[in-house]
Amino acid sequence: MISLTSPVRTRAHGWPAGLKLGLLVAATVLLAAQDALAFHLCALAGTLGLYLLPGGRFFRAGLRALRGLWPVALIVLAWDGLTGDPLGGVVVVLRMVSAVALANLVTMTTRLSDMMEVVHWLGRPLARLGLNLRALEICLALVIRSIPALSEKAGLLRRSWQARAHRAPRWRLIPPLTLLALDDADHVAEALKARGGVAGPKTTKLP
Amino acid sequence: MEKTVSHVALFAAVIAVLGLMPKLTLAFGIPVTAQSMGIMLAGAILGARRGALAVLVFLLLVALGLPLLAGGRGGLGVFVGPTAGFLAGWVAAAFVTGLIVERWRSAPLGLVAGVASVIGGIVVLYAFGVVGMALVLHRGLLESAGLVLIFVPGDIVKAAITAALTVSLARARPQSLLSRA
């Protein structure tokens, strides 16, 4: 499964994922707490600088990930421009872009396996409260494995529909796709039971 | 337990695959993606608890860095952006949709699934979405609501399609409707 981790190797790829997430939380709280335009200009310049450090390819990929923000940014700037608070709008947009860019930076420099370790670490205290960590890990692995398989089945359904009709199937694909997924889920449940279930190995106390 | 894990996982995968489907454009130019319909369907078909868990697992994988949202988006950035409230609202939307389908058994299934999708997938979802947008963009609730109301007609269409799909699934295979099991 393709993840959003950048193929461009950076120094931050080697940092612990927990540290990066901690820094991200601290930076996001700081960005939310500040209202000064100069602070947010410096924050965005610093963030863009971090994107530039690994080179142009990494920087362009980072900018591409921010493209979805421009319609919201335009609306906010136009709104605040019309209501007489253009600087307020600029601060909001700068804060939003910096926060999203920093979060994307953590995603781009952290492998999926490292993030999974963080989930495992965060889940340990919850396990004492009854969270079945093994079930969660199996569930995540099953989703990752099932997406390409279901995607392929959706492609086959689409092609068989197109062979019989001129119009695109659109939402009509959803019922057969859902039924196929529910059938697969029943088979997977049987297979999991046959392999000892998701409760984890039972431990027996020696006398 | 195994059944819950497999149903939650496979439905999370369905939500992801719905994000790969090309978006429709309504007559008045508003884009509609099938993924948010997957949230309504998760509740209507799996029920409150399993539906909400499927959405939660899906969002966890998005946060871990998989590009599973419509348009190939994902990662931590989407959870601090202006639409973060809508993502948080997906879990509550699936739960409320499922809860209504589970509890309200006296009316025809199509009507129940439609009303449940409107309450869960529109009223509850937009409540979360508007609050999230107000926090990120430092707007008032009414201003934020004004920014997203344009998408409501598309969501009403999705709720109607969800109702039709739920009925057709229940007819094709009654035992597949786990919310009524």
Automatic annotation (TrEMBL), chain A:
It comes from the Bacteria. This is Energy-coupling factor transporter transmembrane protein EcfT. The keyword Aminoacyl-tRNA synthetase does not apply. It comes from Pseudooceanicola albus. Keywords: Membrane, Transmembrane, Transmembrane helix. CDD domains: EcfT. One of its GO terms (cellular component) is plasma membrane. The chain crosses the membrane at residues 12-31, 37-53, 65-82, 88-106.
Automatic annotation (TrEMBL), chain B:
Its main location: membrane. Keywords: Cell membrane, Membrane, Transmembrane, Transmembrane helix, Transport. Pfam families: BioY. GO terms for cellular component: plasma membrane. Gene3D superfamilies: 1.10.1760.20. The chain crosses the membrane at residues 51-69, 76-101, 107-135, 147-170. It is a multi-pass membrane protein. It comes from the Bacteria. GO terms for molecular function: biotin transmembrane transporter activity. It is found in: Cell membrane. InterPro entries: BioY. Belongs to the BioY family. This is Biotin transporter. The lineage of its organism: Bacteria, Pseudomonadati, Pseudomonadota, Alphaproteobacteria, Rhodobacterales.
